[in-house]
Structure formats: structure tokens, C-alpha cells
Amino acid sequence: MLPAVETETAHPPTASIIWLHGLGADGHDFEPIVPDLELPETLAVRFVFPHAPAIPVSINGGYIMPAWYDIRHTDLGIEHDGEGIEHSARQIRMLVEQEQMRGIAAHRIVLAGFSQGAAMALHVGLTHRERLGGIIALSGYLLQRQQLAARRSKENQGTPILMAHGVDDPVVPFALGEQARHTLGEWGYDVAWHAYPMAHHVCADEIRAVGRWITARLG
User: Where are the beta strands (DSSP E) in 84-203?
Assistant: First the structure.
């Protein structure tokens, strides 16, 4: 089981959000945003911020750092690390199962992530075999698009998705986020899309939009 940071907005929680960090960060990265989401006091949510395993990352000269999968090219749209993706996907599914064992129904669990974490949230959420409460992908992209097209689960065909991206992102180009949005739309998913004048990070308006979306889905 992946180690994780946890925080609850109220007790006992009636919903869970598993939030996946980006390359080189850890579970503490997005922990401070919870109050900024401005969730209503009546919405009791357990936030789970797991730490990705430390692995060598090719694009960074083999330097060992927290990562959900290896990245070999600056072009994030090609040659994805299938073995690493599936290893992390299994670990993330275990976190979903853990929340269910703690009494949270699958349709009350949201997968969220930033950058590499957003890519994993989409990958796991779209292939999960039980209906989830939603998927949040901030500054992300689709992994293994052809394989994903064949492996998508019918259970999550109607799961709402929130995507947001910075138009000046030099790490995950805006075009990759837009491509993911259009592909999901062509596949029939309900995608809410936001673009912001920023680079590869999050902004206050974006976090508030995420909070409103969570409230609408889980409130």
C-alpha cells in the first residue's frame, strides 16, 4: 500500500478524494489546498495524498525521484512507460479499495491529480470497473491512448470529468491537454474544461473552480 498523507474536512467522512501529485513532488504538495477549495462544512471528505514510489527518471538523467512512471522523451505524447503505468495503476486501485473497506462507496470516491498525477487519475479512472464519483485532471494528458480506447470501462462511461490547463504550460503543453479533452469528448465523456493564463502550476481561480465542482458532485 502506498504511504499517504490524509486529512478530513469533517468526521465521519462520507466521501474520499485520492489526489495524485506530479513528477518529483510528494503527497504533501497539494495538502495545503484543502481549505482553499472552500467546501461546505456539511461535506465531510477524506483527502488521501499518496506518495509515488521513487524511481529513476530517464528524462532527468536517471535521477531517482518520486514518479508514477518513467518519462523518456520531452514529447509526452509518445512512447509511454507501460510497465510503470500499470504498476502505479495497481497501487492506486488498492487505495480505492482501501477507501471502500473504510465505508466509502465507489461512487463517492474521486480520483484527482496534477500533471503526471492527472495522467494517472484519468488512466485509472477511465478503466476502473466500478462507477467512481468523478475524475479531476489538472495540467494532464492521456496515457497510451490507443490501448486506453480499448480498455475503457463501461461503468465509468458516464463519470464526470473536470480538466484544467495553463495556456502557457512549458512542461505539459496546452495542446496535449486540449487533445485529451477532445478525445474524451469524442468518446462520449462529460468533460468540464477550464483554461487559465498560467504556466505549469495551479492558480486560485482554478482551485475555487475545483471546489465548486467537488461540491456539486459530492455535496
Answer: 109-114, 134-138, 161-166, 191-196
- CA 118, chain centre distance (Å): 4
Taking only the tens place, the pLDDT of each residue in 21-48 is 999 999 999 999 999 999 999 999 999 9
Question: Where do the domains of the chain lie?
Answer: 4-218
Q: How far apart, in whole angstroms, are the C-alpha atoms of residue 38 and residue 162?
A: 17
Q: Which residues of 25-49 are buried (b: 16+ CB within 10 A; e: fewer)?
A: bbbebbeebbeebebeeebbbbbbb
Look up cell 494528458; give the residue.
141
What's the chain's Rg over C-alpha atoms? 16
**AA identity, residue 164:** A
Distance CA 63, CA 168 (A): 27
C-alpha grid cell for residue 70? 518513467
* CATH (residue range 4-218): 3.40.50.1820
Helix (H) or strand (E) segment spanning residue 16: strand 15-20
- Is 0.90 topped by the overall pTM? yes
Residues with a catalytic annotation lie at 115, 169, 200
CB atoms near residue 102 (< 10 Å): 11
Separation of CA 115 from chain center: 8
Q: Name the band, by pLDDT with cuts 50, 70 and 90, for residue 75.
A: confident
Q: Is the peptide bond before 66 cis (omega within 30 degrees of 0)?
A: no
